[in-house]
Structures are given as C-alpha cells and as structure tokens.
Amino acid sequence: MEEKSNTQSHSVRGIEIFGHAIGGVGQNMVYALWSGFITAFYTDIFGMNPAVMATIFVVARVWDAFNDPMMGILADRTRSKYGRYRCWLLRMPIVVATCLVLNFTVPNFGNVGNIVYAVVTYILMGMAFTSVDIPYWSMPAAMTSDPNERTKIFTTANLGTNIASTVGNMLIPILLVSFGGTNSAHAYFMTAVIFAVIGAALYLTCFALTREHVQPSTQKFSFRLAMKSLAVNKPLFCIMITNLVINLAFIMKMTLNYYYTTYTLGNVKLMSVMSLVTLPSIIIGTCIAPLLAKKLGKKRTVLVLMVVNLIVSGIFFVGGYF
User: Which parts of 179-297 fold into alpha helices (H)?
Assistant: First the structure.
C-alpha cells in the first residue's frame, strides 16, 4: 500500500523529473499518429468524403470545448491514494491505447455504419486522450511547490514531447511502408498497435516513477469563476488564443506533410527525412528558450521566436522544401 507524502516543500528527485518526461514521450508518440495521420487514414483507407471528415472534426472540437473543462474539474476534485492527477496515468493508458487502435481499424458496417463508427471512435479517442493530457500537465504543481523545480519539470517534459513528436513522425512512414504501404488498412492497424503499446507502457512508467508531494487546496474549484477570470484577464486570454493558433498550425503542418511527400514528392518516407532535419533545431530551441526568457523576458522571447518561425515558414511556403 502506497502512502502519499504530506510534505509541501519536498525536493523533487531527478528520477521523478525524468519519469514525468517519459510520460510526455508516450503521450506525444500516440498524438503524432492520431493527429498527424488520421486525416490520411480517413481519406485514403476509409474512403471518407472530405466534407464528412471535416464535419466529424468540427463536432469533436465543439465537444472538446465542454469536455476539457469538465475533465479539469474532475481531476482537481479527484482524491485517491495516488493523488489527484497521477492516478489517471494508471487508470487511462489502456483506454487510450484501445481507442487509438479502434481509430485505425476499418469495420464492415456499410457506408453509414462506418461513418457512425468513425464519429464515435474519434470522439472517444479525444475524451480518452484528454483524460490523461490534462492530469499529466497538471502534475508539476502537485509534485512540488517550488517554482524553479516546476520550471525544470516543464522544460524537461517539453523537450521530451518535442523529441517524441519528431521521432514519431520519422517512424510512422517507415512502419507504414514496412507493413504494406500507405494504401493498406493492415499497415495503419499494425502501426497503431505498436504506438498504442509504446504509449501505454510509457504512461505507466511515468506513473511508477513520479509522486505527488503537494497537498491539494481545500478551496473548491468554481467553473463560473474561472470563466469570469478568463473574461477579465486579457493576458491569459491572449496566451490561450496564441496556444490555439500555434497548435492548429502544427497539426496542419504535420497533416499536410503527409500529402506533400506522398502525392507531390511521390515517397512518404521523405516525411521521415523532414522530421530528422528538424530534430536538432527542436533540441537546441528547447534548451535555449529558458536562457532567452531570462535575458529578454518571456513576452519578448515568445514574440521573437514567433517572428522567426513566421519568416522560416514563409521561406518554405514560397520556395518549397526542395
């Protein structure tokens, strides 16, 4: 029987910081396949009309607007011997893994039945992923009350997740080709199974290596107050909009890279080369970002890096990758 520490100022061990980052690696391996290749799977394997696919995505995003806050409230109110957030890394990995595989499975329910299947499995995957994603990123606040230690945890986790996304996008095209090619339902299914197993294993490793040392606040969370605070807190609102735009751009880039390498360049494996090329810049950027923030300030650092990203993206847009 595990006992949860009551210490507020507990120093986080290196193995806990590493363990938290490992969970992010598993999470982003799963996300790399789901967000980057589900569109290609629906159009090329499922034979889904793009308009129908777009409708599914819109319905799912609308539901996320309600589901995400509900999951945040549920996680904050959770009480278990493993803590508020860490317990979800034990409860949900198998669910996430199962949903991932179901998302990349082609049933035999007929045209309408298959579309219903896609809607249900896609929304369930989003809910399952959220049930781990929100507790995972909330854990640093429960692992330590020291702002510097939290920064270490977040920085290490961000490095791990960025590397995982890149490595995942390198491996997926290779696995698809190895299992039969991008036009093979079996290839997508087997790749999903592999990534599901890896993701679940790393989630559980994160659970095993981390601990929550900070006692939860006795103050009850008010969703109404949170929405009111968001309405009057303009900096927070701007940060949320910025994150939304950045994540949307990232997802679009990963999705379009598949079609670009497959149909324009004629070789989906070149997507692996593109990911490999970006890996050094991701590692360097993650390492120097805290230094830039100390020197320039967080606001200026974000603005500078966004301008640099805009310039580089513009060069690629005008000149192409090759």
Answer: 185-209, 223-232, 234-259, 270-296
Q: Which regions of 227-286 does DSSP assign to beta strands (E)?
A: none
What is 40-89 written as a DSSP string? HIIIIIS---HHHHHHHHHHHHHHHHHHHHHHHHHHHH---TT-SSTTHH
What are the distances in angstroms from CA 305 to CA 100, 185, 309, 311?
Answer: 33, 40, 6, 10
What pLDDT score was predicted for residue 248? Answer: 74
- Mean pLDDT score, 41-55: 91
How confident is the model over 243-271, as pLDDT tens digits?
777 777 777 777 777 877 888 778 888 88
pLDDT for 3 beyond 70: no
- CA dist 200 and 236 (Å) reads 33
pLDDT of 236 strictly over 60? yes
DSSP letter (8 states) at residue 10: P
The sign of the torsion formed by the CA atoms of 111, 112, 114, 118 equals positive
CB 27 within 8 A of CB 203: yes
The Cα–Cα gap between 228 and 225 comes to 5
Asked if residue 143 lies in contact with residue 20, where contact means CB atoms within 8 angstroms, the answer is yes
Is residue 113 within 8 A of residue 107, CB to CB? The reply is: yes
